[in-house]
Amino acid sequence: MELFGATGRRREEKRKDTPLADRIRPERLEDFVGQEHILGPGRFLRSLIEKDQLQSLIFWGPPGTGKTTLARIIACSTRSHFLAFSAVLSGVKEIRQVISEAEGMKHQGRRTILFVDEFHRFNKAQQDAFLPHVERGTIILIGATTENPSFEVNSALLSRCQVLTLRGLDPEEISLILSRALQEEEKGLSSLRAKLAPDALKHLSAMAHGDARVALNALEVAVLTTPPDADGQRFISLTIAEEAMQRKALLYDKEGEEHYNIISALHKSLRGSDPDAALYWLARMIEAGEDPLYVARRMVRFASEDIGLADPQALNVALASMQAFHFVGLPEGELALAEAAVYLATAPKSNALYLAYEKARADVKEKGALPVPLPIRNAPTKLMGELGYGKGYKYAHDYPEGVVKQDYFPQELGPRSYYRPTDRGMEKIISQRLEFWRKKMGPK
Q1: What top-level class would CATH report for the domain 171-245?
Q2: 3-state class of 359 per DSSP?
Q3: pLDDT tens digits for 236-247?
Q4: What is the fold of 8-165?
Q5: What is the CATH number assigned to the segment(s) 257-346?
Q6: Does domain 368-441 sit in CATH 1.10.3710?
Q7: Residues 152, 156, 157, 158: what is their CA dihedral angle, to the nearest 10 degrees?
Q8: Does an H or E element contain 404, and which?
Q9: Domain residue spans in the chain?
Q10: How many CA atoms lie less than 13 Å away from 157 in the CB half-sphere?
Q11: Is there a contact between 375 and 390 (Cβ–Cβ < 8 Å)?
Q12: Which parts of 185-256 fold into alpha helices (H)?
């Protein structure tokens, strides 16, 4: 039943035939990579572990982000009795067994931490079996899940657990994990004398899409299938890394010219109202390992710059796609970005908002901080009222149609006309509205 209880000879024997990803799991916080938002100095989980003040937790995050590894670190650092099993292989019978063991430990004055992997695999009735024991303090429950706990965990149990969200690892973090695996003598690949080409390391780190286990499995396959040369070294080239990962490296440098070429191609495809080309360039970036949130940010910018008020909903769609990706992650979140790309490509286009703001900004830079006209200033004090603040202000709601001619620009600047809507999409209606108001108020 104890997932991490093997010690001494049993653990050494296990290391000989277990996958690399399992062998090199760190057992100390100092060796853990990533999740700084909960494990950095002074952060919530680090403080709980260091002070040995664990409470019931749910680790929620994509595969290969360190959920089980964190459980191992807790097992190695806590003074509590530690039990662990997987919901995939266990049922109510096993739950009863561990609870019975935990109750025995409690009578001896020792608390029990129970780690349950794949917690979402338990149905609601099975989850209910934990509730009274969590409430009574018989166990401290730590569950790990790749599914949203809001939907997969009983609300009563969820209210008694702190949910900690783990994010997908950055390519730089995965690169560090791979480098350590190559150098690790006892549990890693050091004895095989493998050397990873820089582009091969970058490829494995990017194509893992935040999953350290995927990267480590591919690295192990690459090393084991590469014969040593005359000097006994195994050189892992990009071609070998591609074979191990079963994904080709696309020509794409996130910090070089090709990065800017492809994001430009996406932007121009959207502007040119070609949804098919937009999908192609979007896929090129995602498949090459680009940060999907970078793409989402660019589409948010595009919604304001190239669509604007021709379709105000475009900005909402772009923002929703970014939020959806945050929520779902890879690979499912790709569709949210694809939906946004198609919507933006097929929306009516207008850069009137962009041009208007650029004109307003140019005036601000050229004229400086001109004073606000007295009529449209607030007068929160008696002195301000005596100085003429707010004097002569016309309250628009007091006039027919809710509009009235009034000077809103600084006197030194005079009236300006920045925003000139097109006749496309919603801007056609805005144009008609502005024309109606200008007829009533007269030209600027």
Answers
A1: mainly alpha
A2: helix
A3: 888 888 888 875
A4: Rossmann fold (3.40.50)
A5: 1.20.272.10
A6: yes
A7: 60
A8: none
A9: 8-165, 171-245, 257-346, 368-441
A10: 28
A11: yes
A12: 198-207, 212-224, 238-245
Given the DSSP bridges, would you call strands 57-60 and 139-145 parallel, antiparallel or unpaired? parallel
Which residues, at least 6 apart from 393, have a Cβ–Cβ distance to it below 8 Å? 375, 376, 406
Cα–Cα distance between 18 and 217 in angstroms, integer? Answer: 11
> pLDDT (tens digit, 9 = 90+) per residue, 50-92?
887 788 889 998 888 888 888 888 877 777 788 777 776 666 6
- Asked whether the bond before 421 is cis by omega within 30 degrees of 0, the reply is no
DSSP notation for 245-268: HT-PPPS--TTSHHHHHHHHHHHH
At 4, list the tokens. 């991490």
The sign of the torsion formed by the CA atoms of 36, 39, 44, 45 equals positive
Beta-sheet strands, E only, within 118-271: 139-145, 162-165, 194-196, 234-236
Task: Collapse the DSSP code of 400 into the 3-class scheme (helix H, G, I; strand E, B; otherwise coil) and give the result.
Answer: helix
Q: Is there a common fold for 8-165 and 257-346?
A: no
Residue with tokens 């190559």: 182
Four-residue CA torsion sign, 199, 204, 207, 210: negative
Mean pLDDT on 384-390:
85
